[in-house]
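We were asked to recover a plausible sequence for a given structure. The inputs and outputs are reproduced exactly as logged, with field labels preserved.

PROBLEM: sequence recovery
POSITIONS: 352
GIVEN STRUCTURE:
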């Protein structure tokens, strides 16, 4: 059954300056339900929504995202709905709770009942565009993304080889048996599950069809470290935040800088301190040697695939006046006749 006339009259009646297609309306309603702004569709009414319910949902979504509250699916709202983001809902509970909430950050309501958590990368990227993310690159990135949260809390993270790790990290495609299928490049980027007693609690999944990058220009892919910090926030109990500067904002905001120097925004520090306050004063626990901090390999300089090579002569076909081996390097010379004069001529090619 198609969407009812209440929705069509709402969008076309109030947004007549920029008409929205019926397909956009349908996608918008699906988006609002997927991310917690509308209740799940009722199979008896086939997604029928009231004008008041849809208007309120759109306003809450716009307020949460920090854009103008119009209550209609205008161009800015639809554009935001198409922006890459986390798969998890923005609203936990009802929109009324969100309206009354004074704090901009949100907590999921669940926490780990221990301070020492283990993590393991269970599956590595398989897509060709992510073949640079091997063990020596991916493990340090995950280490520093988790370490960001331990700096402001009592939590400590330890890598393990055991399959029963608290936080299992996977790179997956499309449907991967957890209820949150990925949708290919763009759209949803990753998701993680809140703490709890369920076997999947704490697990963190990244869409392997995205082009994951680090320490690279923003237009070359999606910054894996920034997304990992966000998702690990969910894995320890944080929900999405409406604060513009928060790493827990649901929409991808681009690279956040050097993983070894990144500091949480204040909104996220307040949130993690609410869940896992740092112990104050001296403790009776024996000192523990800090783990060795891994180095992240330097990524190669990006070069477009069609970048022309320097216009050098072919050594096998060109004519040269002299060839010399100087300090272990081979030089080709072309100039006046005679070896000594050739040395004063131009060096046309050098081999290291």
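RECOVERED SEQUENCE:
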């Amino acid at each position: 059954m198609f969407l009812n006339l209440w929705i069509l009259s709402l969008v076309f009646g109030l947004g007549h300056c920029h008409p929205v297609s019926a397909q956009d309306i349908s996608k918008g309603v699906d988006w609002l339900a997927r991310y917690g702004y509308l209740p799940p569709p009722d199979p008896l009414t086939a997604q029928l929504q009231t004008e008041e319910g849809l208007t309120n949902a759109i306003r809450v979504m716009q307020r949460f995202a920090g854009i103008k509250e119009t209550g209609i699916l205008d161009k800015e709202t639809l554009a935001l709905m198409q922006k890459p983001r986390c798969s998890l809902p923005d609203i936990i509970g009802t929109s009324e709770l969100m309206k009354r909430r004074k704090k901009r950050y949100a907590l999921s309501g669940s926490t780990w009942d221990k301070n020492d958590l283990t993590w393991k990368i269970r599956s590595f990227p398989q897509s060709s565009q992510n073949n640079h993310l091997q063990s020596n690159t991916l493990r340090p990135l995950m280490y520093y993304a988790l370490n960001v949260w331990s700096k402001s809390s009592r939590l400590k993270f330890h890598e393990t080889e055991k399959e029963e790790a608290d936080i299992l990290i996977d790179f997956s495609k499309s449907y991967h048996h957890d209820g949150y299928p990925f949708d290919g490049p763009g759209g949803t980027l990753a998701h993680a599950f809140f703490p709890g007693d369920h076997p999947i609690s704490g697990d963190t999944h990244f869409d392997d069809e995205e082009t994951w990058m680090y320490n690279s220009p923003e237009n070359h892919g999606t910054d894996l470290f920034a997304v990992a910090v966000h998702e690990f926030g969910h894995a320890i109990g944080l929900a999405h935040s409406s604060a513009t500067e928060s790493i827990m904002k649901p929409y991808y905001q681009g690279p956040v800088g050097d993983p070894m120097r990144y500091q949480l925004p204040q909104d996220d520090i307040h949130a993690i301190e609410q869940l896992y306050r740092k112990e104050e004063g001296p403790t009776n626990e024996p000192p523990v040697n800090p783990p060795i901090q891994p180095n992240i390999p330097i990524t190669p300089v990006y070069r477009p695939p069609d970048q022309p090579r320097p216009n050098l002569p072919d050594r096998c076909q060109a004519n040269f006046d002299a060839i010399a081996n100087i300090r272990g390097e081979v030089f080709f010379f072309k100039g006046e006749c005679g070896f000594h004069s050739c040395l004063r001529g131009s060096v046309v090619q050098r081999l290291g």
